[in-house]
Amino acid sequence: MNKIWLIIRREFLFRVRKRSFLVMTILGPLLFGALIVAPALLSNIQTDTRTILVHDKAMILDFEEGNEDIRFVYIDPNRYSLEESKAMVLEKGEYYALLYVPTGESWDPDFIAAGIAMYSKNDISLKVQAFVESLIKSKIQEEKLKLLGVDPAVVQQSTTQVRVRTFYLEEATQKERQSSTEVKFVLAFISSLLIYLFIFLYGSMVMRGIIEEKASRIVELIITSVKPFQLMMGKIIGVAVTGLLQFLIWVVLSFGIYVLTSQLIFREKFDAARVLAAQRAELDREGSALPMDIDRSIEIIQAIENINFPVVLSLFLFYFLFGYLVYGALFAIVGSTVDNETDTQQMVLPISVPLILAILSMTAVVENPDSNLAVVLSYIPLTSPVIMMARIPFGVPWWQIGLSMVFLVGFFVLAAWVAGRIYRVGILRYGKKYNLREVIKWFSYKV
């Protein structure tokens, strides 16, 4: 055991002293935080107002002014032709685009809608296109209602927006808590993708380390002092400790970034949401409601606050650790069977297929976390680390989590034993490419 500890210590110190480890440990949370904060900051930046020249022959827009980002400028369709309007957009830099609305002899709204077009010197942004389409759709709908003898104002008054708030009931306390499928969806995808990336990142570290020692023949000297199995487990656990340290530092730094941004950047929004949440409770008792957009922001913030992050983080650490240990043993087999990294492709592919299958199944699992597919993949050790982290935010019975853990730990013991028997033969073989059948034969060799 003392020899394994020495190997673990060597692997750990060798990797944490690398400059790349320090850089990624610091930059990882910063980049992740930037991905979260940047869109929010960019959304608050005021963009220049875009002026759109309108050639409305049907007069269907009724001189609509636009909004704070888009301004409409109308020209006389009887005075200017479509070609002249296009020329104005090309010659004058003040116009972002030309909106052309045709007309017909029978003034058919469907005919008008089919002929509407926009012209611009550059590609028209999706935001502008969506606004114009929404505006014209509402205007044409109004005209259709008028042709049918229906007052558009009456239809507008009868239209109601509906958003069903979702809650989950705690069995122990029978209390209700705000939930949000979107928030859980994002958490599930982030957790699963991190597990996937970490397993490949640290598993490949084990493989490369074995290949380097094998190529330099250092391993021949090392195994004179330790058993091959001790060497393999020392390398796998050493990289695991390195990964855990890096991940824990990321958690601490990410939490610090979260606290900092929530206080400096999003403090007003969080405080306002909590005040509005109290107001909504009062309005619910009175039979009233908050505006839809405000109600939605409260729902998201409350759903985030109701997530049991200590439980999610603890389960993430377990599935990361044992998922890595399982694949670390498999990557150790690959490293022991080749002399350089270029020969690893055909061996890495078979052990990568289950992880890739898990990633491809994530959408189906998240949409239906209790399906037979999701439950079965949660029990298979090669897919359970990714699939379980996709299910946990939505709630998984503890007996299923426990059974999945038992299968994963048991498979790790089996994988380590099999890997050790192959590793002891492979690290001393050089100069030949081995296929899967030959590698399997090594399992029964006596050394």
UniProtKB/TrEMBL annotation:
This is ABC-2 type transport system permease protein. It comes from the Bacteria. It is a multi-pass membrane protein. Keywords: Cell membrane, Membrane, Transmembrane, Transmembrane helix. It holds the Pfam family ABC2_membrane_3. GO terms for cellular component: plasma membrane. The keyword Transmembrane helix applies. The lineage of its organism: Bacteria, Pseudomonadati, Bacteroidota, Flavobacteriia, Flavobacteriales. Residues 19-419 form the ABC-2 type transporter transmembrane domain. It is found in: Cell membrane. The chain crosses the membrane at residues 21-42, 185-206, 247-266, 311-335, 347-366, 373-392, 398-423. SUPFAM superfamilies: Periplasmic binding protein-like II. GO terms for molecular function: ABC-type transporter activity.
